[in-house]
Amino acid sequence: MTTTPLAKRYATALVELAQAENCLADVRSAAVALGEALTTELQNTLANARMDKAQLTTILTTATKGAPALMQNFIGTVVENGRTAELSTMLATIPAVADDAEGIITAQVTSATKLTKDEQKNVETALKKLRPDAKQIKLETTTDSSLLGGMVVTMASTRLDASVRGQLNQFKQTLTA
User: Fold this and answer.
1) What is the pTM of this model?
2) Residues facing 105 on adjacent strands
3) Taking residues 12-18, what's their average pLDDT?
4) Which of 11, 78, 85, 168 is a plausible cystine mate for 97, CB 3.0–4.6 Å?
């Protein structure tokens, strides 16, 4: 996910308010749902500088019907501040900021073959030892047969390459050094 400093500031402010009002799970769900509902056409409409705030408010009020009041207020603030062009980025940033606030770390695991449930549990256990401060480790798994075997794990700015391809590349660098 690509974010911007502005999107992160808005997402952080919303998450902090949601924590204070004890409605973080509802706000996270509403952000995900609204983010999925924002079609390319709607995003282009929101980015249109010629749209007035009343029109934007009408569009987004309809889109957020049933969302928590805090989320509706957030959307109103985004419109009022003229930041609707950044809304989709803000919405995409909210779940990651919420996870961070709750001590949940997401690890991207790419393996040569699909991991079984037991293998996933073993990876979670190993990562928990690396990050004992994490309350929970969430795995996002993908497969890449070019790894030949093993896996590559990325958590925040840490990358662990335990793949056969990675070991062969290291061996190649050692031989050519």
Assistant:
1) 0.74
2) 137
3) 96
4) 11
